[in-house]
Design the sequence.
């Protein structure tokens, strides 16, 4: 087996006097899709925020390609695509402008691919419409278009399918598989029943927390 | 990093060591403050210009000193907490703020009381008093921010950043206020412009300053111990401690 | 099923040899912020109206007597400018925080320092700069002698960017809180005092035809210090606020 991309060592996190996880250990290998499961409040979002580097309320170590992420924050961020609860879409900007801003933040993105990506998420014809005139689902799609643009191997997706219709979900699932097939890895949480279940490895926070 | 540094990081060790140090500092602060006060108020000679009203400096000066050094302590503790993620340092910083704010209030109040006989009004925009007022504002901002943020560790980190920003600003504020003061009013009486104080005057002052430092150490340790117990209430050693005290 | 393909993964080599051009992201940030501001023009005008209103309160509250107003004018204009920048401060990071853009900025490999500096500059161009341009109007209403005008404009021009920089620290510290607005004022106002002192002194010096350069140099020194240190504090504060 190849070397793990992401390793979590003895992760401990406590929130409001409640231990969310203790001694959490797992590794993620290239080509894997890992689904984080657990009840509401079990710390799924917290875990993804910790792994992405947004939340620093934890003890333990997170290694990326064998090196601690705190020692190589910039490089880790370059290899990371994070999709959070809030889509990160500016309401007064158009989808195209929103993606252009992402291209500025992530220099690996080629501006020329933006129309193609918008087409792929079904927003053809909406390129010049301010996002506040689009529906909630369409706004999420603007942000999901980043998946088509990004060249980052690690995708951390927190509820990416919220407000997306069935057909859209199917397309995104295919996308995740394709990403895994080219050696990328995905960490996600979702309430949707995935068709790609058999390709997914799961970790359940309810079982692991051990409190 | 030396070993004691890591030991300090342990709340339990910190609780024990402060428990041992507390009585000594308490006795020292009581003795020094009583001696200094009696000497300063009853035995030191009156000032040749201000008569007896100058004696308020025995309260004002230590309070003003402390308000400033406590701010520095708080900012440094905050920085240590921020850099080394040391919980005890966060607790020290949090415990400092109310003590420093109260001493700043004391310094302002004694300044006002001194102002009445000297300047004829309760408040004059004297450079030192104005700086002290701004210092009090900085303290109040820190206390407000700390109480507005619910998560303890976020609150500690945010206040540490604010305290450090304040620390950089304090010399600038002090300089600008002094400069503003000389621009707008000629120097009259300064509350502590005593180039040649006889030893009978400054020795009690020195004793009181040291006494106030001890007093600060005592209150800081008491607050810190409370804070440690509150935050570590679920830790086994706190439970054992409680059992011991009950049984 | 769409036929679109993903972009190829970035080569490791490429990532290790990544080259960043801070200038590029700075310009991109500035462009985005100005674009956002121009599409919500009401937010743009509100601080200016506030500025005008606060200045109007003084003749009504104190006295319409020109001699009295003329002595008050430097301070009044500066205090009003200070409060107006403060008013616009809360929005600086709030919308980015609420819609998730801030998380993306923090997670980008670009230096946060530079993005923050771009945002602050854009913020100043939308508040401090218009305030500076509007100040002569208020100065005339308050009977500030004409000689003082140069001092007023120059001091505001050099002083207001510092206000934006320092205010942004407060905005970054309170961005995670629902009621950040009042709190920002508490945190930031004491830190504004040196700028206020040197700014009004510059105007007074100009009124009495004293040399201005010293005052402006002091304001410039504060600005230089602000540019060097404030973005570090802002970046740290943002990471803490988002983490919380």
Sequence:
């Amino acid at each position: 087996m190849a070397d793990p991309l992401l390793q979590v060592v003895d992760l401990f996190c406590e929130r409001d006097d409640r231990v969310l996880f203790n001694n959490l250990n797992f590794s993620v290998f290239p080509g894997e899709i890992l689904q984080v499961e657990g009840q509401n409040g079990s710390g799924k979002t917290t875990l993804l925020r910790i792994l992405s580097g947004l939340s620093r309320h934890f003890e333990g170590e997170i290694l990326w390609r064998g090196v601690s992420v705190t020692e190589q924050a910039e490089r880790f961020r370059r290899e990371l695509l994070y999709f959070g609860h809030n889509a990160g879409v500016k309401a007064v900007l158009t989808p195209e402008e929103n993606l252009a801003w992402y291209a500025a933040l992530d220099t690996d993105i080629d501006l020329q691919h933006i129309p193609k990506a918008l087409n792929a998420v079904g927003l053809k014809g909406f390129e010049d419409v301010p996002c506040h005139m689009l529906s909630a689902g369409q706004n999420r799609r603007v942000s999901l278009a980043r998946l088509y643009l990004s060249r980052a191997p690690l995708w951390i997706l927190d509820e990416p399918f919220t407000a997306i219709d069935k057909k859209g979900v199917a397309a995104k699932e295919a996308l995740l598989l394709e990403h895994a097939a080219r050696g990328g890895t995905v960490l996600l949480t979702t309430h949707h029943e995935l068709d790609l279940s058999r390709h997914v490895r799961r970790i359940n926070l309810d079982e692991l927390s051990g409190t | 990093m030396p070993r004691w540094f890591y030991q300090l990081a342990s709340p339990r060790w910190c609780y024990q060591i402060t428990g041992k140090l507390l009585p000594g500092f308490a006795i020292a602060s009581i003795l020094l403050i009583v001696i200094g006060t009696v000497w300063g108020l009853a035995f030191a000679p009156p000032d040749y210009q201000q008569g007896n009203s100058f004696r308020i400096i025995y309260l004002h000066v230590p309070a003003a000193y402390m308000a400033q050094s406590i701010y520095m302590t708080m900012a440094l503790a905050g920085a240590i907490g921020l850099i080394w993620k040391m919980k005890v340092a966060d607790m020290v910083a949090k415990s400092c703020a109310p003590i420093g704010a109260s001493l700043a209030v004391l310094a302002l109040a004694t300044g006002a009381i001194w102002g009445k006989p000297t300047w004829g009004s309760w408040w004059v925009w004297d450079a030192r008093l104005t700086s002290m007022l701004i210092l009090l504002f900085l303290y109040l901002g820190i206390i407000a921010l700390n109480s507005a943020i619910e998560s303890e560790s976020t609150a500690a980190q945010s206040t540490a950043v604010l305290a450090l920003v304040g620390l950089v600003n304090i010399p600038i504020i002090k300089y600008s206020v002094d400069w503003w003061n000389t621009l707008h009013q000629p120097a009259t009486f300064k509350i502590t412009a005593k180039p040649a104080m006889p030893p009978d005057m400054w020795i009690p002052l020195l004793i009181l300053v040291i006494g106030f430092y001890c007093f600060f150490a005592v209150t800081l340790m008491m607050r810190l111990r409370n804070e440690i117990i509150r935050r570590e209430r679920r830790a086994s050693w706190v439970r054992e401690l409680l059992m011991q005290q009950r049984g | 099923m769409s036929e679109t393909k993903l972009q190829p993964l970035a080569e490791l080599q490429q990532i290790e040899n990544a080259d960043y051009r801070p200038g590029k992201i700075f310009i991109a940030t500035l462009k985005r912020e100005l674009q956002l501001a121009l599409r919500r023009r009401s937010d743009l005008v509100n601080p200016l109206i506030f500025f005008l209103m606060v200045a109007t309160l003084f003749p009504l509250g104190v006295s319409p007597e020109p001699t009295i107003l003329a002595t008050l004018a430097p301070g009044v204009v500066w205090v009003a400018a200070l409060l107006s920048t403060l008013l616009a401060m809360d929005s600086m990071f709030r919308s980015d925080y609420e819609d998730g853009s801030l998380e993306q900025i923090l997670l980008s490999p670009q230096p946060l320092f530079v993005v923050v500096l771009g945002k602050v500059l854009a913020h100043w161009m939308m508040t401090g700069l218009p305030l500076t341009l509007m100040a002569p109007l208020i100065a005339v209403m308050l009977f500030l002698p004409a000689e003082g005008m140069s001092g007023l404009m120059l001091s505001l021009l050099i002083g207001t960017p510092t206000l934006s920089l320092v205010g942004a620290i407060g905005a970054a510290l309170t961005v995670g809180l629902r009621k950040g607005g009042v709190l920002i004022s508490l945190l930031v106002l004491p830190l504004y005092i040196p700028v206020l002192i040197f700014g009004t002194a510059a105007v007074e010096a100009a009124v009495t035809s004293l040399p201005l350069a010293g005052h402006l140099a002091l304001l410039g020194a504060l600005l230089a210090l602000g540019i060097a240190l404030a973005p570090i504090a802002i970046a740290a504060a943002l990471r803490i606020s988002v983490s919380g």
User: Anything to note?
Assistant: Chain C has one domain: 22-243. Chain C is about 80% helix and 0% strand. Residues 47 and 84 of chain C are 5 Å apart (CA to CA). Residues 213-243 of chain C form the longest helix (31 residues).
